[in-house]
Amino acid sequence: AQSVSQHNHHVILSEAASLELGCNYSYGGTVNLFWYVQYPGQHLQLLLKYFSGDPLVKGIKGFEAEFIKSKFSFNLRKPSVQWSDTAEYFCAVNDQNRDDKIIFGKGTRLHILP
Amino acid sequence: DARVTQTPRHKVTEMGQEVTMRCQPILGHNTVFWYRQTMMQGLELLAYFRNRAPLDDSGMPKDRFSAEMPDATLATLKIQPSEPRDSAVYFCASGFQAGLEAFFGQGTRLTVV
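YS: structure for the whole thing
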C-alpha cells in the first residue's frame, strides 16, 4: 500500500539550531511532494511543494526540502529555527500516475525552546 | 482572500446522534478531500471527489459515514449514528486538479459523548 513515513514523531530544539525532518514514501512512480505546517489550533498550510525540476525546493519562512529520488526521500530543512516555528509538520505525497489522492505522513511535532 | 470554509467549527453531540459537517470549497476548485485527524492516526483520507463525483471513499467506514457533493459549492460529510470513537478534527480541503496542492479549511472539531 502507498505510504508516507515520518521518522521523527517529536523533535525539541533550541532557537537557532538547525532542523532536518525526515520523510520517506513508498510510491514507485512519478510523485508530487509536499510539506505542510499546522500551527497550534490552526489548519494545515502549505510550506513548499515539488512537482518537477530542481530537486532542491525553497518554501516560505526559510524552509527548504530536497527530493532524492533514489532514496524515496523528501527531507525538510531549515538552517536556524525560531520559536515561532513550533508546530506540527506533515509530509504528503501524490502519485501522478495512479490517482489524485494526497496521502499524509503522521506528522512531526516540533517544539522550539526560547 | 479565497479560502475553504467549514461549518460548524465545533460540534458536541451524544452518541447515536446524526452529525453533518459542511464544506464550501474554493470557487473554481474541482477536487475536494475529506480528512480526519486524530492523535493516534494522524491525518487519514476519508474520501475525495473530482467534479462532484466520488473517486475514492475507501478510507471511510461505510456503515455509518457518507460523503456527498450536492453541488459544486457544497460538500457534506455525515455520520449516522455517531460514536465516541468518531471524536476527531475533520478537515475539508480543495484543489484545482490532480497533483496540485490542497487548500485546507479550519476544520470541524467533533466530540461525541
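YS: worth flagging: Chain B touches chain A through 25 residues (CB under 8 Å).
IM: good catch. Also Chain B is about 0% helix and 55% strand.
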